[in-house]
Amino acid sequence: MTMEKRSSAFEYAPAPESRSIVDIAPSYGLFIDGEFTEAADGKVFKTVSPSTEEVLSEVAEAGEADVDRAVKAARRAFEKWSALPGAERAKYLFRIARIIQERSRELAVLETLDNGKPIRETRDADLPLVAAHFFYYAGWADKLGHAGFGADPRPLGVAGQVIPWNFPLLMLAWKIAPALATGNTVVLKPAETTPLSALFFADVCRQAGLPGGVVNIVTGDGRAGAALVAHPDVNKVAFTGSTAVGKEIARTVAGTRKKLTLELGGKGANIVFDDAPIDQAVEGIVNGIFFNQGQVCCAGSRLLVQESVQDELLDALKRRLSTLRLGDPLDKNTDIGAINSAEQLARITALADQGEAEGAERWSPACEIPSAGYWFAPTLFTNVTQAHTIARDEIFGPVLSVLTFRTPDEAVAKANNTPYGLSAGVWTEKGSRILAVANRLRAGVIWSNTFNKFDPTSPFGGYKESGFGREGGRHGLEAYLDV
Amino acid sequence: MPTTAPPAHALSDVTASDGTLRRFLHGLPGVDAVGLEARAASLGTRSIKTTAKAYAIDLAISMVDLTTLEGADTPGKVRALGAKAVRPDPTDRTAPATAAVCVYPDMVATAREAVAGSGVKVASVATAFPAGRAPIAVKLADVREAVSAGADEIDMVIDRGAFLAGNYLKVYEEIVAVKEACGTSARLKVIFETGELSTYDNIRRASWLGMLAGADFIKTSTGKVAVNATPANTLLMLEAVRDFRAQTGVQVGVKPAGGIRTSKDAIKFLVLVNETAGEDWLDNHWFRFGASSLLNDLLMQRQKLATGRYSGPDYVTVD
Amino acid sequence: MSDRLNVLKTYKLYVGGKFPRSESGRVYEVTDSKNRWLANAPLSSRKDARDAVVAARKAFGGWSGATAYNRGQILYRVAEMLEGRRDQYVREVAEAEGLSKSKAAEQVDAAIDRWVWYAGWTDKIAQVVGGGNPVAGPYFNLSSPEPTGVVAVLAPQESSFLGLVSVVAPVIATGNTAVVVASEESPLPALSLGEVLATSDLPGGVVNILSGRTAEIAAPLAAHQDVNAIDLAGADEALARELEIAAADNLKRVLRPQPVDDWSATPGTDRMTAFLETKTVWHPTGSLGASGSAY
């Protein structure tokens, strides 16, 4: 028999995740001292879905007075929270982890709506990692004396935490879980474009019975973040975001006793040697730069490929990019979702245009861009050299710059030739070369024969201008202890 | 030296000697097991719904090599299988026929009769299936018998012992000889028994070895060992046929066999085909499922899509 | 009193394994606690600071790439060399800090022992602060400490020798290289330390020692884009804040000044970990075969 062939043989029908699982209120207040409250001056801002530009909700915009109120609430809560036996703090965190697992589908849909990233990622990466992070640090709360920071390390006090929009709930988990486990209380400011999952997390805290003031969420823009960082009664500042803002924060806390950790930008090199497992390398490259639309600080945004396999690799890579499915982030088959904001889209567009203007060769697979929302097609630049802007500046988008090298020495020299030092990838079947290259790369996370893997037990953080301090693992406790 | 000239393509000189063949096979890119399995698992999360699902189920039915390979096979059993291959769902004439029935060589004539005039092919395992531990003359006789009895397709097993001992040219020459025995009328499927080759590097090498020797299909397994077709080993073989065509222009089919029992599994394999080798392979000339119980599950799913009700085993035929 | 006139030492900087005068050609007068002239010390300029950074950067690859065992051997050799010149340092410390001979001897002995303490740490710190991480997947995952790079060290102002050794040894024990600004008022023991380091198999450039006005030398170091970290031990509150702000330009790791009552107390690991990065390497473990079990 013969099958009737379609124009495109196997078109996947839409497979949208149900939006009705999440109930977004028309407005949200600040979460201070266990209560939702309006901003002192009554200001609000809108948060939109990047894939449709639909307004999802209206959120209170915190000013200095609100930040002060939140810090005071956290300070009041600190005395009891820090005096609680570690085992009791642990149980609160275990509760939170469990509730997140229970509500993970709802939270995944919410995150996809507010951020624009594919449901495949929020469902399979963000949410499982969020729950795992709380689970991991829950277990530390009553074991701090065994962590290598002395017999009885003390919490710092009030932690002021400012997080980005690329992994809203995951970055919240990375900040709040270790802070609470060590006995600190928290004022957290989510990113302006993605406030909702943090506000839902406030509800998780309510369900977990967490005492008021232990976690406070102040939504707002950069001014709220600046006020939090500068607040004199904050003992610890943790920031994830751009290197420029990170430097500003470092200046703000200079001369104070505030402990600071920064997790900033990157320009990760993904190094592919001629003896690499090529099909897996292609997957790693794709995962490295197109995961979360490339809006990842540790993205493998520079592909360094050995010249002798360049053609073969690029052919395979282009073929693979042609299978990426861009579109509705709620569709379970979507690989590439929306860019988080118009502002970010403009930045990506400008840098890509500059790459073209500087003579790099631009390529994107054929793909249909939706009419509403913020979108950028997966993009590959070849003929890129170290001198190109797109080889040096963090683009924070689905744009890969391809450079070549001839020898391992050259690969390492080029990989390290950046003020950043967050991540790098190495692909080769030769074990000794992996170890030799990993040893010489100046970056905090090295993925060999894999990329963009995360785990709560694994310390994460950068060298050089990618920031300092580590999140995750035993190392991640240090940022919140008086050591 | 090969007993017959290998196919004329860009890679014909790699089989000139044991040394060149070994260097070629060992020069193929390595396979990272974790990365391969992660990719296969990730493709397994594709959500195939409604119209796509209906299309995929019919496509999968049309790709089944409906198989019986038991010591207890009888002409009656084979005739029943043939009838089912031709008309899988007696209640619904729109259900497509399967691609082939697959039987032992001594059942080929019976099978031939059972599917006569339907377009359903007769495939026969041969070469001392499943172990392949017989003298070459016996293996070739096995093949010739099956072909002369009317087999359209021969599913041979490679000499895994020779492969694991590193005698690649011996394996190659045996495939070339079997191919010759198939003549022009029968297509050759080469079974690697991936569960015995054990490593993904070996499976990639075997795939290229088989294709160099003239395989029309490369096939995972006999269904007779502990681990048969898996998404990962099938993905790897799909990469191999894709790359082989890119280098030589020759298209080779893929047949995962053994262990695929549900529609959900079958659809996952079709997603692998679609996103790895591409739509050129989404046709029963280029992709097959070696299976038996899979067919009933596909039929039940097909009934569910048509009626909106879940079906049950009493509404499909026992084999 | 003998009639013989002492031969005085000309104190020089220690940069890149050599003993240059200050590029500025200038010196300043160093006196003892009773304001008696002891020597003229080089008044380092910002160009001296720059040269020292270049030397430290050049030495970093070799020193950080040396085996931990080798670094331990060399640090221990420093202790051996100091022991041999103990009397000289006792005199210099007594003069510099106005201490009795016995008090100065305590300081020098503690400084020598401190080198021994850190010599022993070089090949242990990675085991204490690094290790495998049990990630939830088929991956081998290992975190190891690595030296941050070039570290500017403002040595403590009061404790001219023990304080100095206490801040320099932990920096280089782990593979960093250092540009050290000696105590402004009491730089002579620090400058003399260069002579010991130069004869202890320590590669040139691993430690570079500058004397002069702390604030003047520290400013270009804090702003230098090729300096990775700064220890502000020798800065007062106002200077420390100013330097910390400058250090933010390339996100230097900053160790803020902390009050130290007693430099002879056993140090912990903090001064080492302050200048260590954690590198985490992932690698798939996978299965032994495609046939299922990994075991």
TrEMBL record, chain A:
<dbReference type="GO" id="GO:0004029">
    <property type="term" value="F:aldehyde dehydrogenase (NAD+) activity"/>
</dbReference>
<keyword id="KW-0560">Oxidoreductase</keyword>
<dbReference type="InterPro" id="IPR015590">
    <property type="entry name" value="Aldehyde_DH_dom"/>
</dbReference>
<dbReference type="InterPro" id="IPR016163">
    <property type="entry name" value="Ald_DH_C"/>
</dbReference>
<feature type="domain" description="Aldehyde dehydrogenase">
    <location>
        <begin position="37"/>
        <end position="482"/>
    </location>
</feature>
<dbReference type="InterPro" id="IPR016162">
    <property type="entry name" value="Ald_DH_N"/>
</dbReference>
<protein>
    <submittedName>
        <fullName>Aldehyde dehydrogenase (NAD+)</fullName>
        <ecNumber>1.2.1.3</ecNumber>
    </submittedName>
</protein>
<dbReference type="InterPro" id="IPR016161">
    <property type="entry name" value="Ald_DH/histidinol_DH"/>
</dbReference>
<comment type="similarity">
    <text>Belongs to the aldehyde dehydrogenase family.</text>
</comment>
<dbReference type="InterPro" id="IPR016160">
    <property type="entry name" value="Ald_DH_CS_CYS"/>
</dbReference>
<dbReference type="Pfam" id="PF00171">
    <property type="entry name" value="Aldedh"/>
</dbReference>
Automatic annotation (TrEMBL), chain C:
<dbReference type="Pfam" id="PF00171">
    <property type="entry name" value="Aldedh"/>
</dbReference>
<feature type="domain" description="Aldehyde dehydrogenase">
    <location>
        <begin position="24"/>
        <end position="254"/>
    </location>
</feature>
<keyword id="KW-0560">Oxidoreductase</keyword>
<dbReference type="InterPro" id="IPR016161">
    <property type="entry name" value="Ald_DH/histidinol_DH"/>
</dbReference>
<dbReference type="InterPro" id="IPR015590">
    <property type="entry name" value="Aldehyde_DH_dom"/>
</dbReference>
<dbReference type="GO" id="GO:0016491">
    <property type="term" value="F:oxidoreductase activity"/>
</dbReference>
<protein>
    <submittedName>
        <fullName>Acyl-CoA reductase-like NAD-dependent aldehyde dehydrogenase</fullName>
    </submittedName>
</protein>
<dbReference type="InterPro" id="IPR016162">
    <property type="entry name" value="Ald_DH_N"/>
</dbReference>
